[in-house]
Amino acid sequence: MSKYHFNEIEAKWQKYWAKNGTFHAQNDSDKPKYYVLDMFPYPSGAGLHVGHPLGYIASDVYARFKRHQGYNVLHPMGYDSFGLPAEQYAIQTGQHPADTTRVNIEGGIDKQGNTIAGYRNQLDKIGFSFDWSREVRTSNPDYYKWTQWIFIQLFESWYCKDHQKAFPISELVKVFSEQGNEKLNAECDAGTASFTAEEWNSYSKKRQEQVLLKYRLTYLAETEVNWCPALGTVLANDEIVNGVSERGGHPVIRKKMMQWSMRITAYAQRLLDGLDKIDWPQPLKDSQTNWIGRSEGASVTFKIQGSDHSIEVFTTRPDTIFGASFMTLAPEHELVGEITTMEQRYEVAQYVEATAKRSERERMADVKTISGVFTGSYAEHPFTEKPIPIWIGDYVLAGYGTGAVMAVPCGDQRDYDFAKHFGIDIPNIFEGIDISEEAFADKENTIITNSDFINGLNYKDATRKVIEALEEKNQGKGKINYRLRDAVFSRQRYWGEPFPVYYKDGLPQMIDLEHLPLHLPEVEKYLPTESGEPPLGRATVWAWDTNKNEVVGNDKIDNESIFPLELNTMPGWAGSSCYMFRYMDPKNPDALASEDAMKYWGNVDLYIGGSEHATSHLLYSRFWVKFLYDRGVLPVDEPAQKLINQGMILGTSALVYRVSGTNTYVSAGLKGEHEVEEIRVDVNLANASSELDLEGLRNWQPQYQDAEFVLEDGKYIVGHEVEKMSKRWFNVVNPDDICSQYGADTLRMYEMFLGPLDQAKPWSTAGITGVHSFLKKLWKLYHGGTEGAFAVSDADPTKDNLKTLHKTIKKVAEDIENFSFNTSVSTFMIAVNELTAQKCNSREILEPLLILISPYAPHIAEELWSKLGHNESIATAAFPQFEASHLVESSKEYPISFNGKMRFKLELPLDMSKEDIEAAVMAHERTQQQLAGRTPKKVIVVPGKIINIVG
User: Fold this and answer.
1) Where is 443: in which H helix or E strand?
2) What angle do helix axes 858-867 and 744-753 make, rounded to 10 degrees?
3) Contact at 8 Å (CB) between 158 and 166?
4) First to last CA, the chain
């Protein structure tokens, strides 16, 4: 008897695929291309749990489907292997991050004696059709060489607003030398001074370099950053949760540091416009739209009384300018120290110090706390010239707009609350509106009053008039503003891409491409130095010899031909911003990828990953791709045409109930009788019936060895909580265990069966048995011979066989194209049940059925395909063609009733006339038996529906 030995079958075909390069894509194929990509994983030592492969399985189903459709499919995989977690682990254990990263990927025993499964081994066990010949690891020098090269391209470029495009910096130098910068419309640092061609040409080389830094797309500047003292590094906003670091929960403060930044703001409008051209989820598009934050309004300059300084604000409501009764600066605003009076210095300093301990995200989210300090200085209203008090408040952010607001309390609730709290005047400029209780923010229904020359005007007309008046006074102009800020690109970490930068006379110089990659140096420890320098400050061989073009010892630095190298490293998103293009030609030593490869593959056709990357990786990747498109490196200006966010597989935690103050645990059904504490235990200790393995629990953690357990019906029943799958909650299910117990095909089909791809869904190991039973039933369908022998015949299929097959072809093709994978699995179950009932063993049916199932359960499909006599893999077999004719009903099974009671059924052609139907029914022997020689009074025939013989 042939049994379904899934472990043997799966190992056999995984070995076959690897040996034969079954899924290797070709860069010069005549087939149409299709590029399917997953967001590549960070390889942690914890390995995969069953929630991780969800998106990979979905992309694999689609990739296999496109191969069946005749496409040359690129479906690669690699590792986002630089990053803070590996560095923190290195600090804790003394292991080099390169060693732990390699073991986490390849498996083995690390230097701490821990056995690591290895991501590659785990992924292979699930049977993915990845082209492993194209694997990339962002921490490999032959990969980060190109990350360094892209950084250099950004440094050597500037952005022209007139052309909305990046150009080489050499063209900017030519413009400066011929006409200066007075007529130039370029993205540059705020406050960049104008100069003539004569002045430019008279500048020293160093002065020219300093000016060019104000225009380069990556530049050095003193920037407000999120500094985490415990981790010794800058963190991005998305690496902070509730004011502390996501990694370790350490306090984060705001601090000014000299940092590399990326001028992503130059691309703000193009990043917005590009969203209309790509098929991405609307919530994700909305996230990026809100993050970029385009708004129209006016820039207004307020002079400061008794000072040469002025404050520039951006407002979306210039029509409310006569309602401005105070100004608020961000505590970090550069003028705070300049304008604060002697009497207010202590109070202001205390407030600024306290604010530095709160993240921007925390300050934005906190709408209840009202705090601020008066600087003691006053601004001058541009029209009334009345004094306006200048405050600082942490609800204003230095990173948004100009870091200063024109506070109009009658029209903005935060300004209103601030004014009420501190007793500041709240003038009313809205006709017929009561502002005694709250601000009025409905600009569409605004009529302005108490506002001089704009009295009686609506929002639009008043806005236009105010802008015209400001421009006449040279104190403002109409402006489009973006919330998006330039991206800080420096990290004070070890485990990241080294910058290809050395410093000459304090100015950054780039290392030529021919000398890349600049390898990460060895250091004795991965912590910042005692003097506060980043970990690379510990490197003793970290200087650049410009004669030999190589790294040499620091003791040789002479600042003539040997110079110090950059000590910061690049952030985590550097390596992931263009990795999709490196997959196209990963072994190319001379380019990111060849022109031919990039032209053939274009951009990613289908990208699957988590929505949490909306305003980090995905936004930065779009920026880099648009830049490289501008510079002629890439043929496309978006990384992916279609993107799908997979939902999360939630864990089902197991709860035990400890009676408060004791070491006694009561079963779930008894918890209502006691005051109890819920404690999570390893979910794998509970069976499908929620019964806890008490012996296993006692061996799991020492606190349970002497515990007392109060049972119900002789069992301890656990409670359950559905929540995020996490080691913290002990609810992680290892896919290796599922593959061992049920098989990879079962895991693949079950994860697809759980529910819609983009929705969160709970994992239940109990539910997996149904899918496994289906696969055993599928196996049995092909083994209907004596004692379970393989038995498929060349017999012609029946109409029912063909109907079952073709309705399955139609439904599965539609489901895959719509990413409705869960309903496909249901369709397979129905089909196998029907074919089993029909006792079908026809090759004409069972062969195409395997191709339909192959994307979901490739191992069993390959095994049965080979048993059908095929020598080639099923992977590229043509997808079956749907023929609608097999679903067209040519006959109808009529219920034949006598005086309203159905007596038997009769199948007749659907195209029979009413008269022919009546004749056929009356001639039938069972009709004659029912009538027993009587003549009926009438025969009612409704074609396609009923037949009733009366009398």
Assistant:
1) none
2) 130
3) yes
4) 59
What is the pLDDT at residue 238?
A: 64
pTM (predicted TM-score): 0.88
The chain-wide mean pLDDT, for the chain, equals 94
What does the alpha-carbon distance between residue 728 and residue 768 come to, in Å, rounded to a whole number? 24
CA 426 to chain centre: 44
What are the 10-residue block averages of pLDDT along the chain, 951 residues in total?
A: 90 98 95 97 88 96 98 98 86 88 92 88 97 98 98 98 97 97 93 95 96 97 80 74 78 83 97 98 96 95 94 96 97 93 96 85 80 97 97 88 93 95 97 95 93 96 97 95 92 95 96 96 88 90 98 97 97 96 97 97 97 93 98 98 95 95 96 95 91 96 95 96 89 94 98 94 87 97 93 95 96 96 95 96 98 98 98 97 87 90 88 87 88 89 91 81
Determine the Cα–Cα distance for residues 854 and 866; give it in Å rounded to an integer. Answer: 13
Tokens linked to 795: 């017999």
Token pair for 504: 């000459």
In 3D, which of 115, 123, 40 has the Cα closest to residue 77? 40
Q: How far is 732 from 719, CA to CA, in rounded Å?
A: 16
Report yes or no: 256 and 223 within 8 Å, Cβ to Cβ. yes
The dihedral over CA atoms of 124, 127, 133, 136, expressed in degrees to the nearest 10, equals -60
The gap from C-alpha 715 to its chain's centroid, in whole angstroms, comes to 44
Is residue 268 within 8 A of residue 294, CB to CB? The reply is: yes
Q: Of 46, 184, 38, 51, nearest to 104 (Cα)?
A: 46
pLDDT at 453: 97
DSSP state of 28: T
Cβ neighbours of residue 236 under 8 Å, at least 6 residues apart? 226, 488, 571, 573, 616
The rounded distance, in Å, linking the Cα atoms of 667 and 656 is 7
As a whole number of angstroms, the distance between CA 442 and CA 19 comes to 68
Please say whether the beta carbons of 890 and 909 come within 8 A: yes
DSSP state, 684? G
Integer Cα distance of 744 and 79 in angstroms: 22
- For 441, phi and psi rounded to 5 degrees? -115, 10
Residue 629 in tokens: 């498109």
Rg of the Cα atoms in the chain? 36
- At residue 20's C-alpha, the angle toward residues 16 and 26, to 5°, is 135
CA–CA gap between residue 368 and residue 253 (Å, rounded):
21
Q: Are strands 606-609 and 33-38 parallel, antiparallel or unpaired?
A: parallel
How far is 414 from 802, CA to CA, in rounded Å?
Answer: 68
Q: Comparing C-alpha atoms, which of 651, 646, 629 is closest to residue 638?
A: 629
> Of all helices (H) and strands (E), which one includes residue 340?
none
DSSP for 439-458 reads ----GGG-BB-SSGGGTT-B
Return the amino acid letter for 312.
Answer: E
Q: Which residue type occupies 530?
A: E
* Burial bucket for residue 781 (CB in 10 Å: 0-12, 13-18, 19+): buried
Distance, CA of 686 to CA of 497 (rounded, Å): 45
Which of 523, 607, 498 lies closest to 94, judged by CA? 523
- Whole-angstrom distance, CA of residue 248 vs CA of residue 251: 9
Contact assessment for residue 838 and residue 801, using Cβ atoms and an 8 Å cutoff:
yes
Three-state DSSP class for residue 835: helix
Q: Please state the three-class secondary structure of 774-793 as a single string.
A: HHHHHHHHCCCCHHHCCCCE
pLDDT number for residue 892: 85
Smallest CA-to-CA distance from 730 within 697, 760, 766 is with 697
Look at residues 918, 922, 942 and name the one whose alpha carbon lies nearest to residue 934.
Answer: 922
829 near 752, Cβ under 8 Å? no
Which residues does residue 379 pair with via DSSP β-bridges, in sequence order? 304, 388
d(CA 252, CA 232): 10
Kindly report the length of the chain. 951
Count CB neighbours of 521 within 10 A: 16
Sign of CA dihedral 356, 359, 360, 365: negative
